[in-house]
Structure formats: structure tokens, C-alpha cells
Structure prediction request, 302 residues.
Amino acid sequence: MTDFRFIVEQEQVGTRLDVFLSERFPDVTRSRLKKLIEDGNITVCGKVEKAGKPLKKGEEIAVTFPEALPVEATPCDIPVSILYQDSDLAVINKPQGLTVHAGNGTGSDTLVNALLYHLDSLSGVGGKLRPGIVHRIDKNTSGVLLVAKNDVAHVSLSEQIASKTCKRNYYALLEGVMKNNVGTVDTYLCRDPKCRTRYKVSTMDGKRAITHYRVVKRYEKYTLCEFSLETGRTHQIRVHAKHLGHPVVGDPEYGYAKQKFDLAGQLLHAHQITFIHPTTGEEMTFHAPLPDYFEEILQKLR
Prediction:
């Protein structure tokens, strides 16, 4: 079993127990966290509480992850670029078109299946279908992704993402010419009631999402932008780009219906990640170069 302990700070007072936990374990599903609470694997000051309990300052939250059950996902020899790995973690350059883990409509052709084949171990915190997955990027988004090889590393990396000390930067080619050189989008995101697989900007409902952007280069009808995430919501950059009036080129859900280029998905690439190594304490930064199809479009625009 793997145990973790947290002390509630002043800024967390009043937060629901399940919300507090989901912020520290962002890739553990709410349903799994609720089950851990109900089974007594999560306690507050030694007592089993309900998922909706409002927290008080100084309370100690103890979390025990039972030994992971045998992973149900199967190893598959899917090519994957490993930028770095050691006994605690791996940094992957995920290609466009590869889903991170199994879900509705996906089978054994995911990044998880590839990791089970290429790596010697994966953490079990994320459950049987998400071993090692600390954070995700969309199927048709490419670039750097952190993978945990044990539970201690998983929780450390998840906490860094939750506390915003893990920095993630993306390149995106946007429709139209951006006016401002730099800026910040600070909104709430919620599911679109007209389409449950999509998200939209909201004034107060949903989860707060903060994205910073910087213009890298302007073209005649397009803008290459760098985005940095302060929060990591589903489809965050894609929704915020649309909100700015400049959707990501090739985006099938939030972009223009008519595309000038023959693309398999959006031109959005996670090019850099910076984090603290969970064992050594060393700050580490990794880059993933733009994929060929992205570079080819930029060459045409030049």
C-alpha cells in the first residue's frame, strides 16, 4: 500500500474533501476517489468522512492507495518516442492521433498500451486503465507528456501540477492575426449542454481556467502563438483560443468548418515541460520539437 498525508492550509478552508483530493490527484477519477473515501482508505483526522465534508484549517488528511490490481490494459508494440526515463518517471513525445488511455470507443491502441510494452514499470495510482498517467493531452494534440513509474513519483508530479509549479508550454497556429503580443485568458469552463464532449467559456459555472499567451510570429492570415497553462482543464487552450476569436488551425471541434490545409487534427503541440524531480529535487526541462506536418505548414506560410 502507498500512504500520503496532507495538512489543510488557510486557503483550503471550506473546500470539499473530494475537491481537495481531486486537485492533488488530478488524474484519479472522482468516482475512484469517492470509492476510496467510502471504503475508509481516506480519513480526516483519523475519521472516515463523507466526500462533501468542508475542510478546516490544520486537519490532517490521510490517503491510502491499496495495492494496484493487475492492470487490465494489455501491452502493445506501438512506436513511441521516449525523451527521458529513469526509475521514477519517463518523458514521452506523444504523436498526434494517439489516445492517452482507454475510454469510450477506444481499445488497445492507446499510449498506455504502448507504455506497458516499452517501460519496465508504471504507477498504480490512476487505476487499472490509467497506469502511470499523471496528466493528459488530447488525442490530436502532440508533444511532451509526463509518466510516473511508481506511486510516490505519481503523487509528487500530480501535486506539482495542482500547485502550478509544473510548467507546461504549447505552440499553436491560430486562425487570423492576433492583435496583442501577450495576454491572459481567465474564465470558467463548463461542458457545453448542446454537446457533452465539448466545453465552453462560462462566467461563473464550471472550473476556473487560466491561460497565458505570447505571439511568436504573425503571418498574413495566421498567428503562431505560445501558450502556458496555469490550470490544466480539458480542451483549455482550444476553448480559450476560440474565445479569443482565433481558433486553433485544424481543430475539428472548436475551429472553422472549412480548412485550408489537409490536416488530421489541430496544430497544437506541447513543446516544453518543467518540473522538479520527485527523488533528486532537481529542476528538469524537456522539449519536443514541432512534428514534421506542423513545420511543413509553417514553411508554406513563410
In short: The chain has a mean pLDDT of 89. The longest strand covers residues 207-218.
